[in-house]
């Protein structure tokens, strides 16, 4: 990871701390802000730099260098007003990418109007992902920018003996195959050959809209 990438985290509760921990483990410089001593103490061993301060003051954000960062995550608990104010200040300071944790749909709408780049609700995302493991066999993950687009693993049965070119999944269903694992093989092969014949129990990793994936019978 490029050591010149610098990410800010405002709000060092469980989510903010774990987010910073994952980035730091990949060599990213992480700057954290929180006004609670207990959170500061724990983050100090993980983050590149930590400030104990209120992030609801634009001047404070400026002095702590938040305007110089490429990405900032705002995760300040249940205060809609605080997260909205902080997000607005970050955009005014010129932060290119601002992510914000929302607590409900109305909060998310407000943040979008402010100009936040990505709004997410971790609990909702986790619950929906778990439910989809039951309702969408082979479900792997969501496409980051649209919850109606998913990555899914499918096992070949009726498509055996046909090639991806013959199946023409992209034009018929707007589904893209991103990897294949041949029966008995150890690893997946990325970007499989279009003319290679599929066999029973081969596995395909595909990306597409939930409704489109529900139409196929592989």
TrEMBL record:
Which Gene Ontology molecular function entries are recorded, alphabetically?
monoatomic cation transmembrane transporter activity
Cited Pfam families? TrkA_C, TrkA_N
Name one process (GO BP) from the record: potassium ion transport
Q: Which residue stretches, if any, does this entry annotate as coiled coil?
A: none
Q: Output the InterPro entries linked to this UniProt entry.
A: NAD(P)-bd_dom_sf (IPR036291), RCK_C (IPR006037), RCK_C_sf (IPR036721), RCK_N (IPR003148), Trk_Ktr_HKT_K-transport (IPR050721)
User: Where does the RCK C-terminal domain start and stop, copy by copy?
Assistant: 137-218
Protein name, per record? RCK C-terminal domain-containing protein
